[in-house]
Amino acid sequence: xxxxxxxxxxxxxxxxxxxxxxxxxxxxxxxxxxxxxxxxxxxxxxxxxxxxxxxxxxxxxxxxxxxxxxxxxxxxxxxxxxxxxxxxxxxxxxxxxxxxxxxxxxxxxxxxxxxxxxxxxxxxxxxxxxxxxxxxxxxxxxxxxxxxxxxxxxxxxxxxxxxxxxxxxxxxxxxxxxxxxxxxxxxxxxxxxxxxxxxxxxxxxxxxxxxxxxxxxxxxxxxxxxxxxxxxxxxxxxxxxxxxxxxxxxxxxxxxxxxxxxxxxxxxxxxxxxxxxxxxxxxxxxxxxxxxxxxxxxxxxxxxxxxxxxxxxxxxxxxxxxxxxxxxxxxxxxxxxxxxxxxxxxxxxxxxxxxxxxxxxxxxxxxxxxxxxxxxxxxxxxxxxxxxxxxxxxxxxxxxxxxxxxxxxxxxxxxxxxxxxxxxxxxxxxxxxxxxxxxxxxxxxxxxxxxxxxxxxxxxxxxxxxxxxxxxxxxxxxxxxxxxxxxxxxxxxxxxxxxxxxxxxxxxxxxxxxxxxxxxxxxxxxxxxxxxxxxxxxxxxxxxxxxxxxxxxxxxxxxxxxxxxxxxxxxxxxxxxxxxxxxxxxxxxxxxxxxxxxxxxxxxxxxxxxxxxxxxxxxxxxxxxxxxxxxxxxxxxxxxxxxxxxxxxxxxxxxxxxxxxxxxxxxxxxxxxxxxxxxxxxxxxxxxxxxxxxxxxxxxxxxxxxxxxxxxxxxxxxxxxxxxxxxxxxxxxxxxxxxxxx
Length: 742
Prior knowledge:
By secondary structure, the chain is mostly helical. Among the domains are: 3-132, no CATH class; 473-589, Rossmann fold, CATH 3.40.50; 654-740, no CATH class. Helices cover 64% and strands 6% of the residues. The strands form two sheets. It has a five-stranded parallel sheet with strand order 4-3-5-6-7, sandwiched between helices. A hairpin with a 4-residue loop joins strand 1 and strand 2 (306-313). Helix 3 crosses helix 5 (84-95) and helix 16 runs antiparallel to helix 17. It is elongated and about 120 Å long.
């Protein structure tokens, strides 16, 4: 055994022995109790060991399976709060042939060591990054890479670890006449490092120095990745470049594309190809450090004739790169509508993707937000953006685009000729409920004069927006009454549950229900029947569905429904918490949870306002009567503002049933606040003026009773106005007069 190996083997034993002696001294020469021996030894050893010894002991006891000892030494390492580089040096010094990452990965499978090992692993990774990107280390590697073949190999390993962060140093030494001898080594090193060098080098092509530009062109041709083609084609086609620069670009293009697959495309088209690649996060165009929280975006600095890297949050890196490729396309062709729309899409998604609390350092203070550019662009460019967002299935992005479209679209911009389905019309069939509501609201507000494809969806969706403020309806199908009642009781706090032994019986019970939040059906024919119903019932098209099955069916059922985002599988015996949790998972797949109570109430009031405008506009292409079931449900809302808004719509509808619904709500409002009761009676009066009297004798008699005996004078007056507007028979009026006679 080698001396170094023996020292690492015996060092843990020596440290433990020293700690034991210390403990015996503290106990008057007596050894500690056996039960406390391991714990005390580990804690004292951890306290006295150096960082390198602690790393050694942590790995040693991890491999031995001594979890408590490994835990204590790991905790001692974290308590010391070492810098990432110091910790990396300590572990590398202590490794002695052991695989550090393999030990940490193994620990992460152990509950007692997982958290500590993850923290140590993250620190080590930070240390590797900091060490690799240290400017002095990079500079030394570049300066000495020409000393010998061995020096080149050592430098290459260091520079490969630094990746794209070497670029500015390469440019610095390339342009320094004192290091002219390094030029061939820099060229070879850039070629060896390959793809990570592309993003910075294509920006450095903006240099006005012809010799430097040719060097970079040749290097990009040698690296050989197609993402350099747009920049090279722009150089090759620009007559302002010298002939040798253009010739170098043509040669580099031939090296990258020897079969001429890209030869028919202009530079503008190639930049658009690149932009779409970034937008779709094509793997070959992904950031070089996808696991890191930030990645650099490279810019050419004219003053320095060198590169400047701006670290941006990794989630928005692809969006920024998309925007820059679109900007390059627009610089060559300012009228390129596709580049404008894709730039807008990337800018909007950049705001959506930006992590909470983070900023985009590429946007100077005072830069307008994405909405500014969206509304300035208008529907010609926004409709393609909405189409892109729908294809991306990005609900937050879709909502932002619809908001901009609603503010700028106009009828023509929103529905086009009316014969084809525009992106906004398509959005009414999108799985996320908020998207459907916003699309319907935008189309309702546009108030088109002519019918269009999908117009019949607008009012029902606005009605659903009102209905979803009430307790949501869940339809539970189960032929076993005991199991049905069990689950019904467990989810009734969150849902108004309609239960039945068969799907057809359940659907009969919810015929007038405007909004169904959840379907729970047993596997088999009931699911097939539900899918057939969903094809013709818009309420069911995107309703989350939980399919129940026996334990031996679950694997097969998961496979059956894995590609259907609105479906999921739960055991037949699942409890209420499992059902609600799985329901939430479906909602998240569909673009997020349902709106909060406040958001739902606000949208209900807004929807009621739009329905009221439709009711007042007798020439509207929309049929407000389609929302009646939802409006009836809205009168039961606990939010008085929602009830007030709904009552106003009912009052303006020339519909006998709406009048009856409104009258019943007014007559049953004794427990409601006075101002709400007055509103209900005033809206009943409005209904009578719009539609005449359609109340039955029982309702008229009840109204007379309110007028005659109500103690709240304001409510009494409002009820009297309703009674008068209803133009009741003379004998009813006579009864009122005689009742007040002295």
